[in-house]
# Entry
Amino acid sequence: MHEARRFLSIPLLSLSISMSAAVWGGETIKASYKDGVTLAITIDPFDAKAHATKKCGDYVCLIDGKPFYGSDGAVPKYAVSRLVFEKNGKQTALDVSSMYDPWIDSESMKRSFSVDSSEYSGGGSFSRITGYFSDGAGAYVCQWLVIMDGAIRNHISNSEELGELTSQLNNK
# Structure
């Protein structure tokens, strides 16, 4: 009986792994938000052979010479390869450099991002997109500002860095 349970768990584990690969195998996941905004994220498997990873002691601390987010020191499994903001038919690519292991699927996409659009007093509009990415230990947050056809990622950090930054600002 105990032996039979062990063999039943192997197919379930395989199914779970293959479903994750299907969700994060270069497929684009889309979600719609208010004001006619759509976000589309593409997540690809991370190919460690195609990147230079550098360790700091026992942990990976640089990928292609840059600090990165989404891991607690392990080699990432997935890379965010593209994030596109669309409003009124205009698409704007958002900076996704150094973003790994976002742990987003079609069910969590809408919860993982917030989109706030505002109008300038003199005319025109802008949108602020905030993304929350987590597998637990490698949690991080990003924020982008989209104005007309341009965008900038104005924040990326893990929760500890965000807390420290807020504390420093409050103590000044």
About this structure: The helical segments are 2-23, 109-112, 159-170.
